[in-house]
Amino acid sequence: MNLITALALTVSVSPSLAGLGSAMALRDEVARLFLDVLTNGSLVEAHQIVAASNDSQLQWLCTNFDALDAHWKASFGLSHLSSDIKAVICNPSTSVDAITAVSIPLTHMFRSEISAAGQIGTAYLTNMCTLMYPRVIKSFGLDIEEFFNSICPDVGDTDKITFRTDLDSSEYVLGDKAATDIMKYRSQVFARWIILSVTDISHLHYLCNNFGLFELRIGMQGLNSSFVRIDICNTTHMPNPNAAKVYLMEAMSSLFEAMLINAAPPHSRYMSSLCEDLDEASMNSLGFDGHGIRSAACSLSSVIPPRSAGFKRHGGPNPCLSCEFQYNSCRSGGGSQDGCDAHICGNNNVSFTLFLSLSQLSRTEVTGSAVS
């Protein structure tokens, strides 16, 4: 999986200021959606922690929130404190209300992931709006009205494009294996977000040694406490921030894939749309396995996917994320995976790759300059 401390976006343009501006705008949109994913994922985590903790534990978390929050945000190169997330922890609702409250930020997180995953200028979002099965979306734990009301306006005329309530009359439902996989990945995301947030290994030792205090409340949220315990108790030393990020995004990628490819039946028009219109590079920019997700969709579709005219596709991690990029060269920054790949990084006056570290993004509020 690629490092997620950088955003990489390969855009095919002519060497003109107009083309550069278009590429910058597209890159900035991916960056915005990535921050939406992190923000809403944090809110999901906060509500789940409230639902799993008692009053004294929540008081400790509130007292130490700024340090914990700063630790994980530093891992992503972000600088702003999460006031909404702090309010969830420091002014907790009941466990029942906290469980219910997970639905909205989980919905927004999935919506941002979907928006970032597809190619611009295709029928992708229209198909997401009209071909996903509302009953299955609801079984993911999402708010179906919030989800479709937020995704359908993105495709244009909301008077003409609405989600298909008639699809619920079909026999298609979420299968047992898919439901089990989604529970597993949500449980891993929950555990790994905690691992990324801790400032001392003693925090994880406490959670592991006293896991019985949390186990029942974790299970009441529809999570699998066994997977939560495994990830927390198997972390025996203070994790490296980069490794912890990759560990988290691995589970988030798997969760997104499981939800995306199960939102409608296999060998359907929906699956063909995913195969044709998903963009691997954009998904890689989120820290997801873009090639793996698109391959999974294509394996459930009879369509042979065409190459995008606007994006150069490449599978797997981008080897240039740890390289220094200049407009006409890409040289290894040390420790990169097999160095810089010329077909991705080279500038032949037809395409170029822009890199923007999230730390630079948070400091400059997207000035539009390409940085290493």
SSE layout and pairing:
Blueprint: E1 6-12, H1 17-52, H2 55-63, H3 65-76, H4 83-90, H5 95-101, H6 103-117, H7 124-131, H8 134-139, H9 144-151, H10 176-197, H11 201-209, H12 212-220, H13 225-233, H14 241-261, H15 269-277, H16 280-285, H17 290-299, E2 324-326, E3 329-331, H18 342-345, E4 351-357, H19 358-364
Antiparallel strand pairs: 1-4, 2-3
Helix pairs in contact: 1-4, 1-5, 1-6, 6-9, 7-15, 10-13, 10-14, 15-17
How would you describe what is shown here?
The protein has 372 residues and is mostly helical. The strands form two sheets. It has a two-stranded antiparallel ribbon with strand order 1-4. It has a two-stranded antiparallel ribbon with strand order 2-3. It is built from 19 helices and four strands. The longest helix has 36 residues, at 17-52. Helix 1 (17-52) packs antiparallel against helix 5, helix 7 runs antiparallel to helix 15 and helix 10 (176-197) packs parallel to helix 13. A hairpin with a 2-residue loop joins strand 2 and strand 3 (329-331). The protein has a domain at 48-111 and 121-269. Keywords: Signal. Residues 1-18 form the signal peptide.
